[in-house]
Every structure is written in structure tokens, then in C-alpha cells.
Amino acid sequence: MTIGFVPETSSATTSPASRTLEPAEWTAIGIPLLASPREVVKDLHTRHLPSPSTAVIAVYDPDGRIRASASFAGRSGVVDGWERRNALLSHLRHVIPHDLRLRTPVRTAVLMICRDGVPGWTAEDGAWMWGLRDACTLHGLRCGSYVTLTGDGWHVIGENRAGRTPNANSWSRARTDQAPAVASGTPQTLRRVSAR
Fold first, then answer.
1. 71, 48 in Cβ contact below 8 A?
2. Cβ–Cβ under 8 Å, residues 129 and 157
3. Which residues does 56 contact at the CB level (< 8 Å), separation at least 6?
4. Which end of the chain lies in a sparser environment, N or C, as judged by fewer CB atoms within 10 Å?
């Protein structure tokens, strides 16, 4: 019997560079189109008031109704989908049970990233897209749309659908205009998790 080390091969390891998706790869997956992207973006923005560097993950029933959503701060500069996947999976587990018992997924997860910078695709977006696809597989969900929210407005990557409002700067105006008050008159902390 021989004891030793097996040299690593490219198939044995996965490099961080491969844990990303480009827009063409994303489109080839066959992501279901949003029936009304403007309404989805407005609803998620109203629920979570995301500021730049915030991710909003939402799960929708087959009839298009939102079942659960969560928002959280995402570190900027991360281009490895593995880390993005782990963050998304952690938040999905907190807001909704998995659907792994179903033979085919029926609920759809949509991810909206509020960030500074250009409205088009970036390497960080590629990591988020890879992470969303993998998190959906591990949670028994259909992988849905990936939306960026920048200073120029919102943009559904891979669908070429976009709008000017809301945008990455809308959160500050909305917080000023709509901060709920408690009995003492002080502003109430906004919830970052929404579930029905």
C-alpha cells in the first residue's frame, strides 16, 4: 500500500473566479421574468428602505405574492459567490422554511442589491448572481431575478428592464418623510425582516 498526497487538479478545486456569473450565463439559466418589475422594486424598497451596500432577498409564492423578505448589509468588494451564497442562505433560513421536500420548486427568490456605482453589471454582481442561484438550489427555491438599485435607478440584470425610481438615494428621503413614531414621539426602528 502506498501512502502519499494526490496532487490537486483543476477539477478537484473550485477557484473563487469560477464562482461568478456573467449576464449571458445568467440569461442562459432561464430565469423567470418578473411580471411587473417596477411594482416589485417599489414594494421591496418600501418594505426595507435599502441604503447603498444593502441586499434585499424576497421569496414569492406562485401567485406572485410576497411570502417573506429580509435585508442585510453586504460587504463591498466581495467577488466570490461562495461568501454571497452563505449570506443569502443564512437570511433565507431565518425568514422561511426550506422547500427541499418538494420535487420541483414552486416559490421564487428575487434579490435586489442597493449599491453605489454604475448601473450595469459588475464583478460583484456576478458573485451575487452565483450566490443567489446556489442558495436557491440549497433552499428548494426557484432562482428569480437579480435587480440592482443605483443612483441612476433600478435595473433587472439580463432582462434589459429598468426605471429611474426608486433609486439608491431614495432611502434617505423616505426615512425622513415616513419614519414611524411610537407613543413617546421618537422614531421607531424600522424592521429589516418581513414575513407573512
1. yes
2. yes
3. 44, 47, 48, 50, 69, 70, 71, 111, 112, 113, 114
4. N
Whole-number percent of the chain with pLDDT over 90: 70
Whose CA is closest to 74, among 148, 170, 143? 148
DSSP for residue 187: B
Kind and range of the H or E run holding 9: none
pLDDT of residue 188: 33
Please give the pLDDT value at position 174. Answer: 55
Instruction: Assess whether pLDDT exceeds 60 at residue 189.
Output: no
Q: Give the Cα separation of 152 and 129 in Å (integer).
A: 20
Q: Where do we find the cell 438615494?
A: 169
Query: Three cell numbers at 11?
Result: 477539477
Residue of 115, 75, 68 whose CA lies nearest to 91: 68
Segment 143-167, tens digit of pLDDT: 999 999 999 999 999 888 999 999 9
